[in-house]
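Record filed below.
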Amino acid sequence: MDQPPAAPAGPAAIRAEILRQTSARGPDRSICPSEVARALAGGDDGPWRPLMAPVRRAAAELARAGRIDILRKGKPVPPEAMRGVIRLRAAPAAASTGE
């Protein structure tokens, strides 16, 4: 019997997954946004690609709030400059307070 499709991840679930993964890696390591999309879609075989735009939007919100850093070529960039290949990491202040 086939599994029913997973419910689409809402903005709160996406933000929570970004924070969970970046916190688990710590402020010295980063994650790829596709890792968040894959986790929410149930793995590589799940429909994760449509989640990429919502993951990027949620990352921008979290960066504006100071919860994460968006990295481009290894350097923090403001959400407005987010384009192309990016990585996400816990903001140093957020990681030290355990948020």
In short: Confidence is low (pLDDT under 50) at residues 1-6. Residues 11-97 form a domain with the Arc Repressor Mutant, subunit A fold (CATH 1.10.10.10). The radius of gyration is 13 Å.
